[in-house]
Amino acid sequence: MATECAIGLDIGGTKMAFVVADRQGKIYHESTMPTDAGGDSAHTFNRIAQKLNQLIAAHEGVSGIGIGVPGPVDAERGVAFQAANLGWKDVGLRDAIAERLLRPLPIYVENDVNAGAIGEQLFGAAKGESQFVYLSVGTGFGGAVMLNRRLLRGASKSEMEIGHVSLDPVKGRPCACGGRGCLEMSASGRGMVAHAIEHIADYPDSRLTARAITTHRIIALAADGDALSAHVISEAAEALGIACAWCVNLFNPPLIVIGGGLAQAGWRLLEAPLRLAMRARCLPLNHDAVTVALSALRDAALGASALVSYHEAQGGEA
Ligand SMILES: [Zn+2]
Hints:
Number of domains: 2
Radius of gyration: 20 Å
Low-confidence stretches: none
Largest sheet: 5 strands, mixed
Oligomer: single chain
CATH architecture of the largest domain: 2-Layer Sandwich
CATH superfamily of the largest domain: ATPase, nucleotide binding domain
Number of helices: 9
Distance between the termini: 29 Å
Mean pLDDT: 93
Number of strands: 13
CATH class of the largest domain: Alpha Beta
Order of helices and strands: EEEHEEEEHEHEEEHHHEHHEH
Structural class: alpha/beta
Helix content: 25-40%
Strand content: 15-25%
Strand order of the largest sheet: 3-2-1-4-8
Bound molecules: zinc ion
CATH topology of the largest domain: Nucleotidyltransferase, domain 5
């Protein structure tokens, strides 16, 4: 009998990543293709479904499909409300893919940060934990709370928006949400680049150049002693530490997992100041009870594949 597997698909702004993995996270297939968003969404659905149909034909043990997308998602209906970098608004992704599959399979659509948290619980740093907080530092800043092995979804049935909790709603850096001083404007790629641009004139000796500021450049230069880059990293780490402290004081979790591409790339620089900022703002009793760990999930598509096991364990409920 074929090993029972799930397909995971992570849809990003520039690429889509596919995996076929078993319930222990062993990967049998990995591939990517350009997202090529912005055009006709039916064309994108056709390309996704064509790849899924190939994978289903090649792996007879596939019993479900998990899809992670950026932005808010109604997981019950499989609708992506607003994936701005894909040009999607109120897209019925689950049904659009289902009607294109050659073999009917359950499809679960989830916000990518929530999918990351679920993946972390099944295969990563939160393996076996029933309660934890997951924070994701990438282009944006997101988070999820897992309580008794279930995501805390809230009233809108989508996700937690910790990135838009403000550190300074009066004088902080303006955010795309209309507010100011949001955590995302410090502790994310978007925030770090905005911070560097804002202060570049104050650091004439910086090796950052206004036209070529990327987070990877900031991380590399900060490690090499560039003062502006170090300042940007230090603010990001402090904001992350504050976010962790808030989560500790609010939820008193045993574990906080920090994921996302930027956290992975910059952990060596972020970790110590993050822990200092967190300790300074936590109630000691709660601080002593929490562990902060870097994500151990190999990739986002593997996290998406975990949606199948997660939903089966919940009896199909979102
Ligand atoms: Zn905001």
